[in-house]
Every structure is written in structure tokens, then in C-alpha cells.
Design a protein that fits this description.
heterodimer, A: 11 helices, 67% helix, globular, B: mainly alpha
Chain lengths: 208, 402
Amino acid sequence: MLSKISKEALLGPLSRNNPVLVQILGICSCLAVTAKLEPAIVMGISVTAITAFSNLIISLIRNTIPNNIRIIVQLVVVAALVIIVDQILKAYNYEMSKALSVFIGLIITNCILMGRLEAFALSNKPWPSFLDGIGNGIGYAIILVVVAFFRELLGSGTLFGFQVIPQAFYDMGYSNNGLMILPPMALVTVGCIIWWHRSRNKDLQEEQ
Amino acid sequence: MKGLRNYLSRIKPNFMPGGKYSKLQSVFEGFESFLFTPNTTSTSGVSIHDSNDSKRTMTVVIVSLLPCLLFGMYNIGYQHYLAIGQAGAGFWDMFLYGLAALLPTIVVSYVVGLGIEFIGAQIRHHEIQEGFLVTGLLIPLICPINTPLWMIAVATAFAVIFAKEIFGGTGMNIFNVALITRAFLFFAYPAKMSGDAAFVATEPVFGLGGGTLVDAFSGATPLGQVATATTANPQITNIVGEPISTLDAFIGLIPGSVGETSTLCILIGAFILLFTGTASWKIMLSVFAGGLFMGWIANMFPSATYPASSLSPIDQVCLGGFAFAAVFMATDPVTGARTETGKFIYGFLIGVIAILIRVYNSGYPEGAMLAVLLMNAFAPLIDYFVVQSNIKRRLKRAKVNN
């Protein structure tokens, strides 16, 4: 069903070419929205939708874009999609829209988007570009969810807002780690995931 | 001695690669070099060795920490018996209570920290280094006595892994490991690290002490009282409501983190460090100068919004962790500035920033920890500019001569 290039475009970004772990893109939003699981998942879905469709649209019109204004054209496409996602969230999930506040709008500055448009969509056919967008979006979303899982579990003792650490633990003297809620620990958590990922994939390690 | 040496030599092959216990090689070497001077010599280049190796340096620092440690133990007991209304309890009662209360923290700090260092050294086939000897004793001294042991364990593990091992182990860390432990605790568990309940042990320990608290009891530290004060000239009191003078703050029978209360004992430690040439007098002096300077400026403009500004400069350096940070934290040779001019700048800025945070940021009653950590980050930059300006000056001189 999938040609080799399509398969690589879809599955590569999940691990071996992960936008966060390997390309180190999209770190800022990774720190900002991962204090809780729910916003992280919504953010992941939003970014996936936007990367997929911006890749598709840019790839469709790639031969008509003059090279010296291509960044402007890309921005217009991305901005339009971001506004659509923002409006949909406002209409159907206002609470989440409030919780994510400016970070949905800031997807437009997410490095993954520009990176994929420049590196892939401008030089590939629409179908692989679309898959590449989905792959990178999901690759980003996975990291967001993993980081948010640990931050919410250790920082608030909850998952999706439900308390998972039993009350008996708190009675015995356990307390939530307030530092996990703060952005620095998101950076440390991402660092730990990168550490684990590199140790699993020896060829990604830099020469000593 | 000879028998021990022979015994070690006999069991040594078991720990070498291929031996029965080769997984414990670094542990064995750690103990061997702890007991005997290693007989390895450098294989390349010309090296000058003197007898003052890192093991001896660490030992001197430990010795200089002993006055603070012993006084801290006594003070824990003193505060406890004061809180339960038995201020007349004997010296040994107080000291033994403090010893019993503090010992578990020291044990946890060493076991967790050294455990991680041993495992890390074994995985990477490094030698075990002595760096944690000092850190492991600093951690109990800069934490409130009521910090739960599991929190000490978590914070120590975090600091050793993320502030030290990741950067390459002893001598390679950017930030002071003990202070990272303290900062982790402070930001992760603020409820346990500040306020009334943190600094005075009120529970019986191993059957020692214990009793009902007196009515007037309040466990707030002097700086805690100042930070929450609403008037321009707050009256600082001890835990049963009697006023505290500057002399009390200097001697140190006040509530606070274990080793930080007694400026007198810290100065004894400072004397040992300076007399043996272990720590830099330039850093120590300039930290105090910076603290006094900023304390003087703040005191020029006392205001009710920033109640700590009404403290005199002398009070500023005697209260809280300032003196301890100046003597034992800022002088850390690994994380501090290394150029001679840089040491003055580095120390002075620590002093200024510590008081600046203390006075003008009401969120933090004490700023010494944050000031040292911040300047740790800037120390390489200071060194860089000192070196660059030296180069520039000499280049200029060379041109004039031509």
C-alpha cells in the first residue's frame, strides 16, 4: 500500500528521526504545555493536523511558489490552519482553549512546521508530504504525552485529572514534587528521554 | 598496617577484570586508595606532585565543617528543649538529642550519594573519586532538621545524577552539588522546607526528648519572621517569643538550617580553611564585602514594603545561610571563578545578589543559595573576560615597546 518513501516519511519520525529527540525541534512548546496530560494530547493532535495539512497544501502548490517569497507563502498557509484549529477549539472545547491560551496560536512559530515544509514538502509529492506531516506530528505528540505523563504523575499525583497516587501514600508522608510542574523539570525529562533514546540507538550517538 | 596491605594485595586479583568480583572493581579500588596512597604514576609528560591531593583537601574541609556540625547538633537539642519548656536541660541531653535527630540525615545523604557514585564509576570504569565526601556532609548541614529522609534521598540522587555525573563527575560540575540538592528540595517541596514547622525538631527521637510545646512556641526563623513582617522595623524573636540580639545571631542559638545558624563556628571553619590554604580568602572576603555593601545600601532606604531592608548590614551577614554560603559554598574551587581578579568579582556579586534577593524578593526569605547558584553559572564568563583583558593589556604593552 505504501511505497518505500511514504513508509519512511510516516514511520521514520516516530523514533529514528523523531522531531523532538533527534532534530531537537519544538522544544519550547514541549516545556509549556506538558504540565498536564490533557492539554498535551490536545496540543499533539492540533500540531499533527496542522503539519499534515500544511505539508499537503504546500506540496500541492510547490511548483507555483516563487522561491524568494516561499517563507511568506508558507507562513500564510500555516497561519490560516492555526486559526482554523484555534477557532474549532474555541467552539467545541472552550475550557481547553483557555488552558492552552497562547500556545495554540504559537504553533505558527513551532520549528517542526517550518522545518518539514522546507525540508520535505517543497520537494516531494503531496501524498508522501501528507504522511510526513502526520508522522512528524505524531512523533512530536508521543514525546509530549510521555513528558506530560511523568510531570502530571509526579507533580500532581494525577493522570487526566484523576488521582492515581492513593491517599494512603500522602498520609504516610509522601508529597507531590512541585518542581515537576515548573518548566525546568520538563527540560530535564526531555533530556532523560533523549538519553534513553540515544542509548538504545547507538548510531545516533555523536563521535567521542 | 602491613597485614592489611598484604590482605588487600591477596584479594586484589578477585576484583580485577576476569576475576570473581570484577563487577566490584571500582568499589575495591575506592577503598584501597582510601586506605593507602595509590602507587600509580603518570605515564606521559612532566608532572609535579605535592602531597596536597584532593583526598587531603577534602579531609581539611570536613575538619573545618566539624565545629558547625557539632554546634548544629547541640542547637537542634537546645531548640527542642526550649520548645517543650525545658530550657534547663543538660548539655549532654541536648547534644545527644541533636545527634540522634541529625544522624539519619547524614547516613541517608552519604548512602544515596556514594551509592550512585559507586554505581556510576563501575558502569563507566572510572575510579571512584572523593568528591562526595564533602557534599555528603554539606547536605545535612544546609537542610532544615525536619526534612523527611526520603526527600533528602530523592534530592541527593537528583543532584548527584543531574548536577554531577552528567557533567562528568567530580571536578567537572558547573553547579555546586550540595546547593542543587537544597534548591531541588526548596522548589519541589516548599511546604516542608520553609515556614514554622521545618526548622525546630518537636518530636521525640529514639526515645530522647519529646513533650508538649509551650504556648508561645513559633518555629519561624529570624529571616522568616522578617519576610512575613508588616512593619518597617520588625522585632525578631526566638521560638518562645524572646527578642534576639545581633550577638545571639552571631553565636547561633537560633532556629535555622542545621549548620548555618552559628556565624562563630563558621568563622572557626573559615580560619581552618584559610590557615591551611584550602579555600580562597579573596572569595570569602569579597562575599562578605558584597553582603555588607548591599546590606548598607538597603538599610539606607528602609521601607515597610521590604521589611528585610531594616536589618543592619551586620545582621544581614549573621542571619540565615549567608556566612555558611560565603565560607563553604562560594569557595568551592570547582564551580567558582578561577582567575585571581575573577574571584573578587565573583565573590562580591554573590554577596550583593544574596542580599538583593533577600530584601527585595518577598518570595524568598533567603537568597544566599540562589546567589551562589546564579554566580556558578557566570563564573566561566567572568574568567573569560579577566583572561581577555589580560591579553589585551599585554598586547597593548607590546605595541608601545615596538
